Amino acid sequence: MSRRGRRARTGAPTEQRKVDYHNLRNPFPPMNAFSEDRIEALHQASLTVLEEIGIKVLLPEARALFKSGGARVDDEMVFIGRDMVEAAVASAPKTIPIRGAVRARGITLELGNLVFQPGAGAPHATDLERGRRPGSLSDFREMVQLTQHFDVLQMVPPLVEAQDIPVHLRHYAMTQTVLTQSDKVPFIYSRGTPQVLDGFEMIRDFRGISDDEFHATPHCYTIINTNSPRVIDMPMAQGLIDFARAGQVSIITPFTLMGAMAPITVAGAMTLSHAEALAAITLTQLAKSGAPTCYGTFTSNVDMKSGAPAFGTPAHFTASLVAGQLARRLGLPWRCAGGSAANINDAQAANESQFGLWGCLMAGASVVIHSAGWLEGGLTVSYEKIITDLEVLQMVAELCAGTPATDADIALDALREVQPSGHFFGASHTMERYQTQFYEPLVGDWSNFGTWTERGAVDADNRATGIWRNIVDNFEAPSHDPDRIDGLRDFIARRTEQGGAAPES
Questions:
Q1: What pLDDT is stored for residue 474 in this prediction?
Q2: According to a count of CB atoms within 10 Å of the terminal CB, is the N or C end of the chain lower?
Q3: Measuring CA to CA, which residue among 215, 236, 325 is closest to residue 279?
């Protein structure tokens, strides 16, 4: 069933418009924050960090790979030469196709393409009906259904942690939910090789493909966060190696907060972020040349009074622009992020999310994560905020879809038809197009105050509750082979009986 085009305020799709929100190209020219010579200076400074100051790598296998590639290793410190980094960047693919469960859900990560994900990795969920609470499998399931419903969200991240499931079994329940409730590109946690291999096997068998087919083309992705400043820990290093060798996508994302885990200046923070990303990219290419790897950053500032992270700030916006310049310097697809530090879905939350989003758009990000639903700097994903943020994402998608200016669109006939001081409501040109011309808002209400109050004066937050509730209550999962669903259950039952797979620390 189509999830495109105009939607009623209940969230139910109508068929008047056929706009593809799943395959988006960024229509905006990228904006620069620094001059090109300063970007080159920053890049060279990052190479100096890796070559002379070094990065701490906790996994022995990763240190051995770096050493075999020519790096100097001193205990846990690794010193990576410029030539190694340049060779790794050259071998990393500049275009990365990732397959969904069906062909129409596949995406391509490359410069110029635009992919959105909702908020991810939060320990808490919240909505107006049930309040703020630790994330559960039920919350995760409902949020996956919301992600599946909207074409403008093309990847399914780990929206909230299913904390009611033991950690050694959690990856089974969450992966099963994504595979059965969605047909979009799935996420797999990097929490040690046993859990990663479980995830790969579940996807391979559920999609009915061979090992060779799975390894030949990416079918899933993970997020790899370095431990700033200058540490690649054991699970993240192992994840880089495991995903590279399996031909699956690592989205490498240093989390550098200015004044906390990074220098307080944008240039200093981005030098560190860039160095850490380059080190991780190099490790993937040492594990397997040509491994699909996405450059990334998540750089913002902190509130220096409290130490709390802040998002949607001028520093956050500027750091995104710099990251875009560095990604274009490398030629790699890259990941940026929106988000909000607001505690509830209020005006602060909207302003921070939109300012962060526009930073990603102006920077030319290939993947924008945390684009819908994120609150409290990542501690919570809000159902209502998912919906109100989707209002903005679908407006952006309309801009990406493009509006042709045909001779008919120029509307000379309408201009001849309507007399001075007349109106165009009843013009033939208008009547032929009014059902298909405009995007209809999800939660916005453009009626005047009197009409709004007559209709019950429901604000956007409460209207969003009705929308997400209607989608979840009436959700129909994609059609999947029942035998493969049974096979997935059997696999989970067998691995559970064997003790599951505890994450590696």
A1: 98
A2: N
A3: 236
**At 1, which amino acid appears?**
M
For residue 32, the domain's CATH number is 3.20.20.480
**What are the pLDDT digits (tens) for 131-167?**
999 999 999 999 999 999 999 999 999 999 999 999 9
199 and 53 assigned to the same domain: no
pLDDT number for residue 1: 31
The Cα 147–Cα 168 span in angstroms is 25
Question: Which residues span the domain enclosing 82?
Answer: 37-89
- In terms of C-beta density within 10 A (0-12 exposed, 13-18 middle, 19 or more buried), how is residue 114 classed? buried
Whole-angstrom CA distances from 72 to 56, 67, 76, 152, 393 are: 12, 6, 10, 45, 46
Give CA–CA dist 353/341, Å, rounded: 9
CA separation for the pair 253, 228 (Å, rounded): 10
In angstroms, the CA 499 to CA 87 distance is 42
Number of structural domains (the chain) is 2
Whether 78 and 197 map to the same domain: the answer is no
Mean pLDDT of the chain: 93
Rounded to a whole number of angstroms, the CA Rg of the chain reads 24
pLDDT in tens, 289-345: 999 999 999 999 998 888 888 899 999 999 999 999 999 999 999 999 999 999 999
| Residue 501, burial from CB neighbour count under 10 angstroms (0-12, 13-18, 19+) | buried
Same domain, 163 and 78: no
Phi-psi region of 502 (alpha: psi -120 to 50; beta: other; left: phi over 0): beta
For the segment 480-491, the average pLDDT, to the nearest whole number, is 97
Distance CA 162, CA 139 (A): 8
Shared-domain flag, residues 49 and 158: no
Instruction: Look at residues 50, 74, 89 and tell me which one is the last residue of a structural domain.
Output: 89
299, 339 contact by CB (below 8 A)? no
Residue holding tokens 């009906």?
129
As a whole number of angstroms, the distance between CA 241 and CA 285 comes to: 9
Assess contact for 11 and 467: CB atoms under 8 A: yes
Same domain, 305 and 159: yes
Secondary-structure breakdown of the chain: helix, strand, coil percentages, each rounded to the nearest 5: 45, 15, 40
Q: What is the pTM of this model?
A: 0.93
